[in-house]
Specification:
Elements lengths: L2 H17 L3 H12 L4 H4 L9 H40 L18 H15 L3 E2 L5 E3 H4 L19 E3 L2 E3 L5 H10 L4 E10 L11 E11 L4 H16 L5 E8 L2 E10 L16 E10 L1 H6 L8 E8 H9 L12 H5 L6
Parallel strand pairs: 1-5
Antiparallel strand pairs: 2-4, 3-4, 5-6, 6-10, 7-8, 8-9, 9-10
Bound molecules: 3,4-dihydroxyphenylalanine.
């Protein structure tokens, strides 16, 4: 009988298992000792040549050897798996006590902060927000606003022309005409925020592209008191309860009378300083009572209806509000400028 041989195989296998250091080696060991073609398994073929008695003993011995090797392998496999897992955990360890890296987040450009605040103020007074094209027809930008082709007021509003009659709008006032066209003689209470363009040389207070918010109210019995009260409320909400406004006579072709609106200087409170050039006031917008010609040209009966209109320069308001000294800062995306307006989280 080959019992000694079995012992030899077992010892050799246990030795190999003991020395194995990773799961690949263990797989090779399993193949070497337990596969069908292994030495141990080939001893099975001897069973047929043995007597019944010996066959029982030898068969049981082979099984025992095989089970012994197999359970040793299994244990070693588990042991190595655990070692390998621990090694991996150690290598891939993350120190969760380290402080996280700061993620840079953007902030709202102060231009949009102020634009949205102005919109909110007027929505609070019951205005609707209207819209109109930035590429506009001469007809809406000038003609329907009482600025015919030869009118000198056109000189101040030179712009970029697409063709003789199509241009980049010089103000948001064409939305007045477009809204009147749409409302066909019915009352109107709108604001229109939007981009405007002029052929200007860019400097600290001029930009070839800027933005306005137009306002238009048309109804029966609208008078200049309504305009003043509206703009006073706007000025106080935007610049603080202490601000007073003053209306100065001015001229716009589409309003009569026309006014320029000033607020008391926030810096000196109206006493006079370098910011307000010793006047105590700072100009913030233009407005007036809608010219009867404009009402008529746009389908409104000027005997029955009256209205007021105003145009607010968004950058101008934002510059006054935050003490910004150069209009170009809104457009040049310098993060050092933008960071100053970032809301603290
Ligand atoms: N459109 C004028 C401008 O850009 C501003 C303006 C003045 C608008 C008076 C108005 C207004 O609606 O009534 O200079």
């Amino acid at each position: 009988m080959e019992l000694n041989k079995l012992k030899e195989i077992e010892q050799s296998a246990l030795e190999d298992i003991k020395n194995a250091s990773n799961s690949d080696e263990l797989t090779n060991i399993r193949n070497k000792y337990l596969a069908k073609k292994s030495e141990l398994m080939s001893l099975m073929s001897l069973l047929g040549t043995l007597s019944l008695e010996d066959r029982k003993t030898f068969g049981a011995a082979i099984n025992e050897t095989r089970n012994h090797i197999s359970s040793n392998l299994e244990n070693k496999f588990n042991e190595i798996k655990e070692l390998e897992l621990n090694k991996k955990l150690e290598e891939e360890r993350i120190d969760i006590t380290l402080p996280g890296r700061n993620m840079e987040t953007g902030g709202k450009n102060p231009f949009f902060v102020v634009r949205d605040e102005i919109i909110d103020i007027f929505i609070g007074m019951g205005y609707e927000v209207a819209d109109g094209p930035e590429v506009e027809q001469d007809h809406y930008n000038f003609e329907l606003l009482n600025i015919p082709k030869d009118h000198p007021a056109r000189d101040m509003q030179d712009t970029f022309y697409i063709s003789e009659n199509i241009l980049l709008r010089t103000h948001t006032s064409p939305v007045q005409a477009r809204t009147m066209e749409k409302k066909q003689g019915k009352p109107i209470k709108i604001i229109c925020p939007g981009k405007t363009f002029r052929r200007d040389d860019d400097d600290a207070t001029h930009s070839h592209q800027f933005a306005q918010i137009e306002g238009l109210v048309i109804d029966k019995n609208i008078n200049i008191g309504h305009l003043k009260a509206t703009l006073e409320l706007f000025a106080k909400k935007m610049f603080g309860e202490k601000r007073e406004i003053r209306l100065r006579p001015s001229y716009f072709p589409f309003t009569e009378p026309s006014v320029e609106v000033d607020i008391t200087c926030a810096n000196c409170g109206g006493k006079g300083c370098s910011i307000c050039k010793d006047t105590g006031y700072i100009e913030i917008l233009g407005g007036g009572m809608v010219h009867p010609n404009v009402l008529k040209m746009n389908g409104y009966d000027s005997e029955e209806y009256s209205g007021f209109a105003f145009g607010i320069g968004i950058e101008r308001v934002a510059m006054l509000r935050y003490g910004i000294d150069d209009i170009r800062k809104f457009y040049t995306d310098d993060v050092r400028f933008l960071h100053q307006f970032k809301k603290k989280a």
